[in-house]
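[09:14] KT: can someone run the structure on this one? pasting the chain below
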Amino acid sequence: MEGHDNRRNVRVSGTLYDDDDNKPEECSVCYNDYDDNQLRPRTLPCGHTFCSQCIDNAIKNGQLTCPSCRGQHAATAATQFPISYGIKALVRKLKNIQETQEKTVPAKKKFRSMLQEQKSSISSLIKSCEEVLSQLGEYRGQLGDWKTHHLQLQDRLYALVEQNKSAMKLLELEDTSVVDMTTQGEEGKTQLQATLGNLDTVNTLQEVDTTIDTADECSTKIKDWLEKCQELFPDVKTVHTSVKVQETIREALEMTTTETGATADPVHLGDSASSIMDKVQEITLEIPQKQLTVEDLRRMREPVKRLVEAGRVLAVQEDQDGRRSARLTLQDGQLYLHPLLRQPTPAHAHTLQESEVVGVLDPSCTLAFLDLGWAGSTRGRVTIRLTPDTPLARQFVLLCTGQRGHTYRNTKLLRVWDKGQPGECVVGGDYESNDGWGGAPLLPDLQGQYRESGRAGAVWARGGLFGPMHSQFIITTRDRQDGRQWSDVFGDVVSGLDVVRAAVNHSDIKEVTVVDCGVVLPL
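[09:31] RB: done, structure tokens below
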């Protein structure tokens, strides 16, 4: 029978059984699932079941041979055999099971998706919880620092109170001495006045002698009193202690800007995504500060340090052309003054006069810096110690700070001399044309006492002390070995010489730029 060759039958007790009875829902001849039409299951007299279509195909000349047991049955059509309702019921049940499974699979997938979504949500909350716990830990650390500072301040306040008490005791003693001396002086004055009256009334020689003796005695006492007053008053220790203690306490009180019981103005804390410590910083930066002074920069206490780090401290210069400002930055414990530029002033910025800031520079130890960069990024800072109080050094400071309107900022390095050889050096600083043909002096006379040097790191002027380009600078990157030295040396690189050497080895020296410049302010 067609389609039956691929199926294997086994004989048990003389009866053939199909070895695929584990699939009762399908016809063992055509392998199709039974249905309610042409594939309806029908049972032969021998007990085997096949679909109506296969039975019709197997009937020949009114005879049917069972595909399973090879039994012979007389038949002309499949409809002569009864429908196998048991098989139909089994097929229906299997289909229901299958449909249920098919419905269950998406449900399980949805269930798994919901579980995964819930797990993701919980994981996200755990992460957020850990972040906030970390912020709370950091905030608690900050609170601990503040509590420690308050205790330290409290101890200092107690010390101030004790100093004030000691000063008051000294003043009381001084006041007592002054009262005693005042009493003595008033008594002496009364005696002198009485003696003066007696001199007008004497009549005899004896009275004259007596009155004059009394007058001499009173005069001697008053002279001694006057001399003693000059010696005793004022008591230097008392006055000095009182004035210093008053000054210290007054300064401490002036730094207290918040009145007791005053309600702080509301501070906008930004969006909810800001961390706790971000909000703490916003609050502390919004607290009103007294006018900053150069002395505040020298002390660099924590509030001032935070303002500098936030970019809210500027040095300003105003002239007939308007206002320019210079940034102050803090890095590695050093305070840097950048060049004056025409730029907008940040909100809530604290300003100082640029002349006052520059005035703190020590002429005997001035440090300037150049930030070099190429290929779109800053590669490093070059710090130069300038020769004390020389015109070329002063001119270099002017061009690093922009006090005269010109600056080395955004100028290119121009050329390399003796590249790869002893005495290698690089030229830069044409603030005028930026091509090597400019760089006029800013000072009328550049003559002074300069050094000579043949060592790497020496900084000297191009063209000596005369000519149209001696604002240009030259930095030596390799020692000379011929015994000769460069003249007009006005500085030495103290850090960042490796940055200059890296610039020299760049493919095109003219791509190297002085990205920024300025001076180091002593703290």
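[09:33] KT: thanks! Residues 1-20, 257-267 have pLDDT under 50 and may be disordered.
[09:34] RB: yep, looked fine to me
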